[in-house]
Amino acid sequence: MRITTISVAALGALAAAWSAPAPAPVVPLFADAFGLRRRLSRPGIALTFDDGPHPHGTPAVLELLDRAGAVATFYLVGEQVEKDPGLAAEVAAAGHEIALHCFAHTLLLRRSPRALEDDLGRALAAIESATGKVPTSYRPPYGVFSAAAVALCRRRGWEPTLWSRWGRDWGARETTAAIARRASAGLVPQDIVLLHDADHYSAPDSWRRTVAALPQILAAAGEVGVPFVPVTPGATSG
């Protein structure tokens, strides 16, 4: 009985350590404790888009960004890049930052350290092949970091990145007005805004509401009086 009790306690401690960074997207103190970036360290607003590329959502977002003269950061999914490498290349050619999301969109708490490293290695290879860019900013699926992911970022020199504002634009019941309000109300310099240009892992056609909300978000961000910038300084130069 004593051995069993100790084993259960040890397993519980390991599980707690493994998942310790997980609350960071909604508990800023956890993000700060694990060194997960929520805000920029320089003047500007960073618009970020997860889960692409998407055959319809990504071109629509690119067009709106171009009209506004805005740069953004795209956290690409390797399996989607492999399906449409040309579209991933268009994102880079338009001058936006290429960042790392995953190869397969799976919660990291379900991945072993080896599986995580294999997944991200495969994603990096696909992204670099398509875009010619080597991402240095990393955001995991759902924004949920495991202890292994934090350690991997430190070893590889990647910037583990979350957000300070989000549109919550993935749900079937979300409205354009609600997405725009959440993403833009009270924007301040150094905010990182989370949006999605794809519906591969969310409600069908959710990207349409994001695209519809984006002009209002761009206008609100423009009124802050700071430039649109990539998450990583210098990522879009050259």
Structural overview:
Helix content is 45%, strand content 12%. It starts with a helix and ends in a 16-residue tail after the last helix. The chain is of the alpha/beta class and 238 residues long. Helix 3 packs parallel to helix 9, helix 5 crosses helix 6 and helix 8 runs parallel beside helix 9. The longest helix is centred in the middle third of the chain and has 19 residues.
Helix/strand order, N-terminal first? HHEHEHHEHEHEEHEH
Rg over CA atoms: 18 Å
What does the overall shape look like? globular
Structural class: alpha/beta
Topology (elements, then pairings):
Elements: H1 2-19, H2 28-33, E1 46-50, H3 57-68, E2 72-77, H4 78-83, H5 85-93, E3 97-102, H6 113-131, E4 137-138, H7 147-156, E5 159-160, E6 165-166, H8 176-184, E7 192-196, H9 206-222
What descriptive keywords fit this protein?
238 residues; five-stranded parallel β-sheet; two-stranded parallel ribbon; 9 helices; 12% strand
Brief sketch in words of this structure:
The chain is an alpha/beta fold and 238 residues long.
